[in-house]
Amino acid sequence: PIIYDIKSLLTNQSQTISQFDTFLQSYQKQKEQQKKVDALNKQIEEMIAKQVRTTTTLTKEQKLIAGGFEANQGRLPWPVEKGFISGHFGRHQHPVHEHVTIDNKGIYLQTISGADARVIYEGEVTWCAQMNGSYAVIVQHGNYRSVYSQLSKIYVKQGEKLQAKQAIGLIQTDTNEDNKTELYFQIYKDRSILNPSLWLAQ
C-alpha cells in the first residue's frame, strides 16, 4: 500500500508538472500573439490618424458614402460569407487563462479555409501593408473606415474603388493554431474605434 501511495503521488505530481508546462506554453503563445496584435493595432491607428489629419474636408461623394454607411448601421453585410464571431470587441477574460485579460480593438471572425474577406460597403482602398507575415487593408467610407487584417494574399491596391461584398483578400489559415482561419476586423469613425458587432447585420 505504501509503494502504491508513493507511485500515486509521483504520478499526480508528474501530471501537475505536465499540466503546468502545457499552461505555460499556452500562456507564452498567447503573450506572443497579443504582442503581434498590439503592434498591428498601433500601426493601423497611426495610419488612420495620419489619413484623418490630411483629409481636411470630405468631397460630396465621400459625404454621400459616409451618410449611407451610417444609415446602414446594424445592416451591413459581414466581411466573410460564412462564419461566426470567435473573438468579441472590448475587454474580457481570456477563455482559457482566467488571469489574462484581453482588450480587442476589433472582432475576430472564424470562417472556412480558403475563404475571402469582402468589403462591407462601397469605398476606396487607402492603405495596404504586410506585417508579421500577413496583410492588412484599410477601406475608406467617407469619414468611416473598415480594416481587414490577417490576410495571406490581397486582391486590391491603394486608390482602388470597391463595391460592397467585393473580395479584397484571402484570409490566412494559421497552421500553428489547428488550421484556424480567422479575420481580424475593425471599424473606425475618424480616429475613434467602434464595436463592429453593432454595425453588421444580425
Strand-helix topology:
Blueprint lengths: L1 H53 L5 H12 L12 E4 L2 E4 L7 E4 L2 E5 L4 E3 L4 E9 L2 E8 L2 E11 L6 E2 L4 E5 L1 E2 L5 E10 L2 E3 L8
Antiparallel strand pairs: 1-4, 2-3, 4-12, 5-10, 6-7, 6-9, 7-8, 8-10, 8-12, 11-12, 12-13
Entry keywords:
202 residues; alpha+beta; two-stranded antiparallel ribbon
Summarize the structure.
The protein has 202 residues and is α+β, with helices and mostly antiparallel strands. It is 32% helix and 35% strand. The protein is elongated and about 70 Å long.
Q: How is this structure best described in words?
A:
This protein is α+β, with helices and mostly antiparallel strands. Helices cover 32% and strands 35% of the residues. The chain is built from two helices and 13 strands; from the N terminus they run H-H-E-E-E-E-E-E-E-E-E-E-E-E-E. The strands form two sheets. Strands 1, 4, 5, 6, 7, 8, 9, 10, 11, 12 and 13 form an eleven-stranded antiparallel sheet that branches. Strand 6 and strand 7 form a beta hairpin.
What is the number of beta strands? 13
Give the helix level as a range of percent: 25-40%
Structural class: alpha+beta
Radius of gyration: 21 Å
Order of helices and strands: HHEEEEEEEEEEEEE
How much beta, percentage-wise? 25-35%
Q: How does the overall form come out from the CA principal axes?
A: elongated
